[in-house]
Specification:
Elements (H helix, E strand, L loop, with lengths): L5 H7 L1 H4 L4 E3 L1 E2 L13 E3 L21 E2 L2 E2 H9 L4 E4 L23 E3 L5 E3 L5 H11 L2 E6 L6 H12 L5 H8 L10 E4 L12 H14 L9 E8 L3 H10 L6 E8 L16 H28 L6 E9 L18 H16 L4 E7 L9 E4 L2 E4 L1 H9 L6 E3 L1 E2 L4 E4 L2 E4 L1 E7 L5 E7 L6 E5 L9 E6 L18 E3 L3 E4 L2 E6 L3 E7 L1
Parallel strand pairs: 1-23, 3-6, 3-14, 6-9, 9-10, 10-11, 11-12, 12-13, 13-14
Antiparallel strand pairs: 2-18, 4-5, 7-8, 15-16, 17-21, 19-20, 21-22, 22-28, 23-27, 24-25, 24-28, 26-27
Helix pairs in contact: 5-6, 7-8, 8-9, 9-10, 10-11
The structure holds alpha-L-arabinofuranose.
The site of alpha-L-arabinofuranose has 10 residues, from loops.
């Protein structure tokens, strides 16, 4: 029987929702489905102040660093168990020539970053620096290769440089550059947004190109590549259909990119900090579109791949607003509010609930760009509300998925309505159950009850992220305004778990 997603069920029962005072969560026992930790991945592009300033500091910088990599940023990302990091783009990837970013830094050629502000890229942060960063973060690298303006040979040689353990032309150059042993990178993107900045191709043309590039990007000993094809823009279902038909099992994953735009207008996306309830409502409606996208792309993939071998990889997602006033429009620097935290919680719940097909995802982008986890200003660093959600949700990484059904109350604005509540749950290797809940309604709390269907538990503890106003942000003068706190609104009543979920909040519970 086809699995009904929780959002579909929520929508089906919306008509009755007003009649209820208490939402009943129906949580089922775990099967074999695992929520891959790679759903909690991140993305860092040579864009604005993400790499330069965000991770990479000047020589002799007073900011604490190891080999020019900022330690405050590394330590913060380690705390949320960052599982993978995608690099060097984005659009930048299809103009990046990796050989410009190896060898002595003072001899590396410069280039123009045509996609992002037309600034000069000095290539001081290249392959070795990125892989050193991944080592420090203890995460897996996910490299996007250049299909748009690079050759098959160039990609093949990059893979050899990274992964071949023996005597070869690329391994010799690697050793001369100070790295004897291969890194054994396995996540490998074959181009990016090939429908757009990656070459404006048709899906049929790209599928043929994919096969050429992917064939010569070889599996070296101990490093079988997980080749990831450039997939659809939002609801371009024809792209997924064509790729599944033409490429099928020759890929490990197929990507999907979807950004939440507050106004639905790419030319005036809306402010990150200054918005009213109408715009908030519209933003959350757009965020929930991810449920529909993942459901429909998965259904197409199911036709060609019923055993779900090919992963849906949502390797760019998040809210995209206008830049902060006074900043370079090409740098995509935006603030991050409680609204963004609710987007993060909702989207991660969607991915958890689709973890049979979604095996990897990457929030755009880690530092100082779009829906960032971290903002920096010279030697200062702050953690955004979105960071705190990743901190709360890390308990789901590699845990067993627990299916949930429930009737969500509605949150309405004007004539439109969306489900107010979204939820996902998992059980970790110690048996502890984690339930993550998001209440999107800024005006009403939600009372919840569940008997947990025979799962054994004695105690419940929890944490909450909320704030007085939906527009609240963390700033360099008030960096802890929006933060996680102990949650006291959940209790055991006989066999029942009772939860009082405040408005505009993210809650993660632990039952032991
Ligand atoms: O994340 C910013 C940009 O958005 C990426 O470079 C591109 O892939 C997408 O259009």
């Amino acid at each position: 029987m086809k699995k009904l997603s929780l959002f579909f069920i929520a929508i089906c029962f919306m008509a009755n929702a007003n009649a209820q005072n208490e939402v009943n969560l129906n949580i089922k026992q775990a099967g074999n489905q695992i929520i891959s930790k790679h759903i909690y991945g991140h993305f860092s592009e040579h864009l604005g102040r993400c790499i330069y300033d965000g991770f990479w500091v000047d020589e002799n910088s007073p900011i604490p660093n190891k080999g020019r990599i900022r330690l405050d940023v590394v330590n913060a990302l380690k705390k949320i168990n960052i599982p993978n990091l995608r690099w060097p783009g984005g659009c930048f990837a299809d103009e990046y020539h990796w050989r410009d970013g190896i060898g002595p830094r003072n001899q590396r050629p410069k280039m123009v970053n045509t996609n992002w502000g037309g600034v000069t890229e000095d290539n001081s942060f290249g392959t070795h620096e990125f892989l050193e960063l991944c080592d420090m973060l203890n995460c897996e690298p996910y490299i996007a290769g250049n299909v748009g303006s690079g050759t098959v040979e160039e990609m093949a040689k990059w893979v050899e440089y990274l992964n071949f353990d023996g005597v070869s032309p690329m391994a010799t150059i690697r050793a001369q550059n100070g790295r004897e042993k291969p890194w054994k990178v396995t996540f490998w993107g074959v181009g990016n947004e090939s429908w757009g900045c990656g070459g404006h191709m048709t899906p049929a043309y790209y599928s043929d190109l994919y096969k050429r590039y992917a064939t010569y990007a070889r599996d070296y000993s101990g490093a079988p590549l997980k080749r990831i094809a450039s997939g659809a823009n939002a609801d371009d279902y024809n792209w997924t259909e064509t790729s599944m038909k033409a490429i099928g099992s020759r890929m490990w994953g197929l990507t999907l990119h979807y950004y939440t735009i507050p106004t639905n207008n790419w030319k005036a996306k809306g402010s990150a900090t200054n918005f009213d309830e109408e715009q908030y409502f519209n933003t959350m409606k757009n965020c929930l579109k991810m449920e529909e996208l993942v459901t429909k792309h998965s259904a197409i993939m199911d036709k060609y791949d019923p055993n779900k071998k090919v992963a849906l990889v949502v390797d760019e997602w998040g809210i995209w607003t206008d830049v902060e006033p006074g900043t370079n429009p090409g740098f995509l620097y935006q603030q991050n509010s409680l609204r963004d935290a609710l987007i993060a919680g909702t989207t991660l719940n969607i991915f958890n609930n689709h973890s049979d097909r979604v095996k990897m995802a990457n929030l755009a982008q880690t530092v100082n760009v779009l829906q960032a986890l971290i903002l920096t200003e010279k030697d200062k660093m702050l953690l955004t509300p979105t960071y705190h959600v990743f901190d709360l949700f890390k308990v789901h990484q590699d845990a067993k998925y627990l299916p949930i059904t429930f009737n969500s109350p509605e949150y309405g604005f004007g004539n439109a309505k969306i489900p107010a509540l979204n939820v996902s749950a998992s059980q970790d290797s110690t048996g502890a159950v984690h339930i993550s809940l998001v209440n999107l309604d800024p005006n009403h709390k939600i009372s919840i009850s569940t008997d947990l269907n025979g799962l054994k538990w004695k105690t419940v503890t929890g944490q909450i992220l909320t704030s007085e106003k939906i527009t609240d942000i963390n700033t360099f003068t008030n960096p802890d305004k929006v933060h996680n706190a102990k949650f006291t609104g959940a209790k055991k009543a006989g066999n029942l778990l009772k939860i009082d979920m405040p408005s505009q909040s993210v809650v993660v519970l632990e039952l032991k």
